[in-house]
Give the backbone structure.
Amino acid sequence: MSSLSTPQLPAQGILEPLGDEDRDILSGYGEFLPVQPGQHLIEEGQQQNSLFFVVSGKFHATAMRGGHKVLLGSIQKGETIGEINLLDPNVASASVTAVEFSQVWRIDGQTLESYINEYPRAAAWLLIGVGRTISHRLRAVNEKIAAFYSA
């Protein structure tokens, strides 16, 4: 029996297709972390191999370009952070900082691999969601580039 204080992954974003039991099992593979306002979740240029799911709160993704901090976007409840480095581990291309008190759920690549091997059906839905997130973000960048060159 779970207590009321036990965090649970909500049926939002990439987790929406998963049933309650699948989300409960998945939550046990990762960890829930509180993030204070101004705290970096990810730092540009540092190794990063985790997927973060925003349970609550808001983050800004920024990158240093030409000596200036550029806001790349906002990430909110139900969205994910770190999808690319989860699939292709490397250094982070941006910093992600909490704008307000937030809670995230984190899973690293090795642990995700264990989950995939043990729960392939649920993991397939999770990975489809990760792929869709990457696709949506890539399309948004392509539209910004096209708009920039057509202006």
User: Anything to note?
Assistant: Residues 13-150 form a domain with the Jelly Rolls fold (CATH 2.60.120.10). The first strand starts at residue 31 and ends at 35. Helices lie at 20-29, 83-87, 109-118, 120-150.
